[in-house]
Amino acid sequence: MLKIRPYKESDAETIVSWIKDEVSLRKWSADRYGSYPINAKDMNRYYADFPDTEYFHKLTAYDENGIIGHMIIRFVDIENRICRFGFVIVDDSKRGKGYGKRMLELAIDHAFEVMKAKKIDLVVFDNNESALNCYKAAGFKEVATDEEEYFHVLDEDWKRLKLEYIGN
Q1: Domains and CATH numbers, the chain
Q2: Contacts of 28 (CB under 8 A, 6+ apart)
Q3: Which residues neighbour 151 within 8 Å (Cβ) at sequence distance 6 or greater?
Q4: What does the pLDDT read at residue 113?
Q5: Which residues pair with residue 47 across a beta bridge?
Q6: Which among 141, 65, 50, 140 has a CA at the least distance from the CA of 104?
Q7: Could you give the C-alpha distances from 118 to 113, 114, 146, in angstroms and in order?
Q8: What digits encode the pLDDT tens for the residues 82-117?
Q9: pLDDT, tens digit (0-9, with 9 covering 90-100), for 2-29
Q10: Of the candidates 40, 34, 21, 26, which has an alpha carbon nearest to the alpha carbon of residue 158?
């Protein structure tokens, strides 16, 4: 059975291996990859600056076989209790099997029940079709924004989409 718990330093090595896989899969440029921790020591040092608080939660999804996913939830507007999901990553071997959706459902419950969020959103690039499908299956819908934001990386234009949790 899938569960979530607070991130542990021992999770870093596995999560960093997923980041490296994602770099290859998404053909991230060196400058984009350089903004993410590239080894467990750096990841734990980076996360040390962001301890879990009422406003910021680092979560790891796991089952009886080990960890399968990781994400961050933070408030982008504490006064209005608006949470944003960020840095959502799932073990490549678990993709397409419902693990990402279930992890998101558990995190949504966590945001509403533990963090007392009133609204949840996230931002994703439109070229990540598998992530978009997973977010939509978990109840996120694209919302219109005032400006379209594009990033030109490796000869591709990537559009940033804002998604909001609407429910199923």
Answers
A1: 3-120 (3.40.630.30)
A2: 22, 153
A3: 125, 157, 158, 160
A4: 96
A5: none
A6: 140
A7: 10, 11, 22
A8: 999 987 888 877 878 889 899 999 999 999 999 999
A9: 999 999 999 998 888 877 666 554 554 4
A10: 26
- Comparing C-alpha atoms, which of 20, 30, 82 is closest to residue 55? 82
Answer whether 40's CB lies under 8 Å from 18's CB: no
- What is each CA distance from 6 to 9, 21, 58, 155, in whole angstroms? 10, 23, 6, 38
* Amino acid identity for residue 107 in this structure: A
Tokens coding 105? 């459902």
In this structure, what token pair is assigned to residue 164?
């909001």
Number of residues that this document lists for the chain: 168
pTM of the model: 0.83
Matching residue, tokens 């090595």 = 13
Tally of CB atoms within 10 A around 112: 16
